[in-house]
Specification:
Belongs to the beta type-B retroviral polymerase family. HERV class-II K(HML-2) pol subfamily. The chain has about 250 residues and is of the alpha+beta class. The chain is about 30% helix and about 10% strand.
């Protein structure tokens, strides 16, 4: 597949808050970051019409034309969608003869659903969840967060795991990995990969596998949602995540 992007008037469409957030995320040195903030912190522009200066108006997007910094800022911002397009969606293979699974949703008290709804709304806003009517359906389980009264949704993907082919990937033994380290090493760093699966996009044709039914506690309406990323609880998520990590590093 070949994708062509039109960058016409691209400099005018760069959102300032997103630009600053991107610069912060890539680790821009504080001095240079503050310089960029000084230039693009609530900038204004004015128009002179027939010799009369009109009221200034705010500029919420765009980089300065002719400024040598503008192409560099644009390239940094463009790298965000470019990085996303370089990630190949994870293909999930069904076992021969596998049929759609429809399991009833467990009853969840309304007060618990209210807390979960805010979490689902954020996922919908960022495209990690989408609304679809699909033939697959597996239930959600509310799991209480330690030390709080809130709950998080955990999907029971047992039936999906049984319907898909296992992705085998050799994971080095921990003691073998430690043996690779130089004798001078005195400390180790542990990475928290709890939410790493959300970085792995599932192939659109296989997103229906992760569908579930949800009753909105505010409206009382029932709808189907599904993940666009690999879900926690899916048996191939750890292997796919490790393969992606090893491929980039």
């Amino acid at each position: 597949m070949i994708i062509s992007t039109d960058a016409e008037k691209a400099f005018d469409k760069v959102q300032h808050p997103f630009m600053i957030k991107t610069l912060t995320k890539v680790g821009t040195e504080r001095t240079y970051l503050n310089m960029v903030k000084a230039i693009y912190d609530k900038p204004t522009a004015g128009i002179i019409l027939n010799g009369e200066k009109l009221k200034a108006f705010p500029l919420k997007s765009g980089t300065r034309q002719g400024c040598p910094l503008s192409p560099l800022l644009f390239n940094l911002v463009l790298e965000v969608p470019a990085t996303a397009t370089r990630h190949t969606p994870i293909l999930i293979v069904l076992k021969p003869g596998a049929q759609p699974v429809k399991l009833r949703q467990y009853s969840i008290p309304r007060e618990i659903r209210q807390g979960i709804q805010a979490y689902l709304d954020r996922l919908l806003e960022h495209g990690l969840l989408i609304k679809r009517q699909l033939p697959w359906k597996t239930p959600l389980l509310p799991v209480k967060k330690p030390g709080t009264q809130d709950s998080r949704p955990v999907q029971d993907l047992t039936a999906i795991n049984e319907a898909t082919i296992m992705l085998h990937l050799s994971v080095p033994n921990l003691y073998t990995v430690l043996g690779w380290s130089p004798s001078t090493v005195e400390g180790f760093t542990r990475w928290n990969l709890k939410d790493a699966f959300f970085c792995l996009q599932a192939a659109p044709a296989r997103c229906p596998l992760f569908a579930f039914e949800w009753e909105n506690p505010h409206t009382g309406t029932k709808e189907q949602l599904t993940w666009t990323r690999l879900s926690q609880g899916f048996k191939n998520s750890p292997a796919a995540n490790l393969a992606e990590f090893l491929g980039q590093n």
